[in-house]
Prior knowledge:
This protein is elongated. The model has no long low-confidence stretch (mean pLDDT about 95). It has helices at about 85-95, 150-155, 165-175, and strands at about 5-15, 15-25, 30-40, 45-50, 55-60, 65-70, 75, 95-100, 100-110, 120-130, 140-145. It contains three helices and eleven strands; from the N terminus they run E-E-E-E-E-E-E-H-E-E-E-E-H-H. The strands form three sheets. Strands 4, 7, 8, 9 and 10 form a five-stranded mixed beta sheet that branches. A three-stranded antiparallel beta sheet has the order 1-2-3, with no helix packed on it. Strands 6-5-11 form a three-stranded antiparallel beta sheet. By secondary structure, it is α+β, with helices and mostly antiparallel strands.
Amino acid sequence: MNWQILDSSYPFVCPWLKVRKDIVKLSNGVVVPDFYVTEAPDWVNVIAITKEGKFIMEEQYRHGIQKVCFELCAGMVDEGETPMEAAKRELLEETGYSGGEWIEYGMSVPNASGSTTQCYHFLATNVEHIQKPNPEKTEDIKIHLLTEQALKQIMLDGRIAEAVMLAPLWRYLANK
């Protein structure tokens, strides 16, 4: 069932995203002359729970869907970084929280048919606020500390839009 790549080119390249155009031959012999794949760094997200049992959630505007959304702390894995290192860095930068106990909590792919990006999930418990957040200049983030019931409600209300954030959250709630 694998496809054969007959040719590839890159019609768009920037520092954090490449678009690859493949000419592919399907297993049934059909040739697709223009199958596009995005290549971007892998992502991480963190279910972070404070010592007091509150879930750390971020609220920010997402231009792709032009909505303000609730989200887990998340970001890209920088070159030379492990996903765990990236997750700890992002939590500290975006929220000011650190420490606690960390475990890898799975992986998902945002778009298996058209992207190479993988998203690594982490669970961090007993984290503490140790400094003022230091977000990137393009990030405008509001931090919320939510009870489990409040978290469930925003999930049910559709205020968390991204599937790669909902998946580990639903898993966490189902396994409690």
